Amino acid sequence: MKQHIIPAIRLTVATLLLFAVVYPVAVWGIAQLSPNQGKGEIIELNGKKYYSNIGQSFTDDKYFWSRPSAVDYNAAGSGGSNKGPSNEEYLAQVQARIDTFLIHNPQVNKPEIPVDMITASGSGLDPDFSVQAAKVQVKRIAKIRHMEESKLLELIDRETEKPLLGLLGPEKINVLKLNIALDNL
């Protein structure tokens, strides 16, 4: 028995040191070499600071709406709703989001609404949405801002982030950056 306990204790101490001390210090050290020392990308606008890697709430009709959040965009506690696709409360919430979207975007048909406009992400803090989610809002924004739709489509193309290495992940748009660029037009 002694021949099994001593190696088990050594292995426990070694993994504890590796995963509780060495690994966190290494990740922290690498973060210090990155721009902004691992604090994410901070955008300062009109005296306020915004983190571009945390979802922001945009519900004004003159802006591109952001993806819904299960945690009310509170970065102190990220998380999903944990409600399954057959949960009646969840289905009612999604239907309410669809109805609200259609009221504010009457030219859009229900099947044209991208799923990321009516469902929250797993973290509830996703700062990005799909290109389709931006394009489906163009008519509303163009009408309110008295702009040509083509200018908004050019803006969407300019703000679209391509997949990593052209392969990994979908095309996406950061909603905060898109709306800041929209205000700068």
Arithmetic mean of pLDDT: 89
Rg value? 22 Å
Instruction: Report on the biggest sheet.
Output: 3 strands, antiparallel
Low-confidence stretches: none
Strand content: 5-15%
Total number of distinct structural domains? 2
Please tell me about this protein's structure.
The protein folds into two domains: 1-39; 52-183, no CATH class. The chain is built from six helices and five strands, in the order H-E-E-H-E-H-H-H-E-E-H. The protein has helices at 2-33, 88-104, 131-135, 138-145, 149-159, 175-183, and strands spanning 42-45, 48-51, 128-129, 160-161, 172-174. The strands form two sheets. The chain has a three-stranded antiparallel beta sheet with strand order 3-5-4. A hairpin with a 2-residue loop joins strand 1 (42-45) and strand 2 (48-51). Helix 5 (149-159) packs across helix 6 (175-183). The longest helix has 32 residues, at 2-33. The mean pLDDT is 89.
